[in-house]
Structures are given as C-alpha cells and as structure tokens.
Amino acid sequence: DAGVTQSPTHLIKTRGQQVTLRCSPKSGHDTVSWYQQALGQGPQFIFQYYEEEERQRGNFPDRFSGHQFPNYSSELNVNALLLGDSALYLCASSLKGLVDGNEQFFGPGTRLTVL
Amino acid sequence: AQSVTQLGSHVSVSEGALVLLRCNYSSSVPPYLFWYVQYPNQGLQLLLKYTSAATLVKGINGCEAEFKKSETSFHLTKPSAHMSDAAEYFCAVSVKGGKLIFGQGTELSVKP
C-alpha cells in the first residue's frame, strides 16, 4: 500500500518564477492538506482540499494556490516566488478530512530553494 | 485560538536514559493532540494521538504521552533512548476541520 507521494523531491527556482508541486494521497484517502516548513520551524498550514474544493486556508497570500483532481491527487502552485518561499513543502492526506482529530499521513516533502 | 508550545528546542540525553519532551497546549475545547517525529530529510511520522479515550496514550517505538488537562500538557516520554531516536519531534493540536497546528519542534540528540 503506497503512502503519500510527492514530486519532485528537490526544486531550485529563481525569484519571480512560478512553481508547481504535486502530491498523491495515501490509497483510500480523499483529503489533502499542504504545509510549509521553513528551516528550523514547525510546519505551517497552507490549505486543505476536499471534494476538489479548497475548504480551509491558513495565513498565506494569494500567490499560493492549489487544486485537487477527481482522483484526489493535488497540486500546490506558488507564483512570483520570493526568497522567503524557500522551505520544505509537505503534503498530508486523510480520510473525510473535515472531521476534527483525523489522523493525517505525511509525504516526504518537496524541498524548494529560491535563489 | 488554539496553540502549542514545546519547551526546549534542543534536548540531549545519553543512550539508555529517559527521554522527556515537553508540550503544552492552549485550547478552548477538548483537544486532539499528536506527536510526530521527523528524521533528517524526511516527512513526518505519527508517533501517537490523544482523542480523549484514555489519558495515557501509547505509541510506536516505545513512546507514550500523558494528557493532563489541569496542566494543559501532553509530554512525550520514552523509558530508554536509542541512538536511532535522534530526530526532530513535533507536538501538534488538531483544530476545527482537521487542520494541524504545530509547535516549534524539539531536536533530540542521543549521546553514546
């Protein structure tokens, strides 16, 4: 049973560029959440997708957007990259994701470096 | 608003010693609490979860945590540290809709 997978593993971009990160949830899961983890910090919630809609959003600017596909996979897009966007981006999946206390399973992350 | 505070950004123990990682939470409702571990260059792995069924929660790798409402704490303990336990540990609270709020993390070092 495959767990949560993310691609690519590493990515280097320059300021002002756009980036797309991808996530496939654990088999049977229908909800995907994205987190940003800056170096030396705990993960920060970006947003959550369920039934192909953004259901919750953290304190991130509109440059961060996402999408969920009918097969439950998800993309995170970041426009107009800033140096401060350099971080590990984690995808987490869960089942019936709007339920409080649902266990989330995390992928290995995508390391984004903005130069 | 719910929040999590982890006391001590770095904890160092000797191999075989007791591990104690501290976590305090702030929540206006009965919380769902989690401990995750992150090994270098990897994602997060769930160690254990509190859902109000029992105040003492046992997790993987010999870890356990005790929920103490009067102290708003959910400290993680492990009786005997192994070298392989060296990692970053995160305490988190689940808020409305399943979103997780994480603490800043505690880096555990294990000395031989």
Overview in brief:
The complex is a heterodimer of chains A (115) and B (112). With 115 residues, chain A is mainly beta. Helix content of chain A is 0%, strand content 50%.
Comma- or semicolon-separated keywords:
heterodimer, A: 115 residues, mainly beta, seven-stranded mixed β-sheet, four-stranded antiparallel β-sheet, 11 strands, 50% strand, B: mainly beta, six-stranded mixed β-sheet, five-stranded antiparallel β-sheet, 0% helix
Description:
The complex is a heterodimer of chains A (115) and B (112). Chain A is built from no helices and eleven strands. With 115 residues, chain A is an all-beta fold. In chain A, the strands form two sheets. In chain A, strands 2, 4, 5, 6, 9, 10 and 11 form a seven-stranded mixed β-sheet that branches. In chain A, a hairpin with a 5-residue loop joins strand 7 and strand 8. Chain B has 112 residues and is an all-beta fold. Helix content of chain B is 0%, strand content 56%. Chain B has no helices and eleven strands. The model of chain B has no long low-confidence stretch (mean pLDDT 92). The chains are: A mainly beta (115), B mainly beta (112). At the A-B interface, strand 4, strand 5, strand 9 and strand 10 of A face strand 4, strand 5, strand 9 and strand 10 of B.
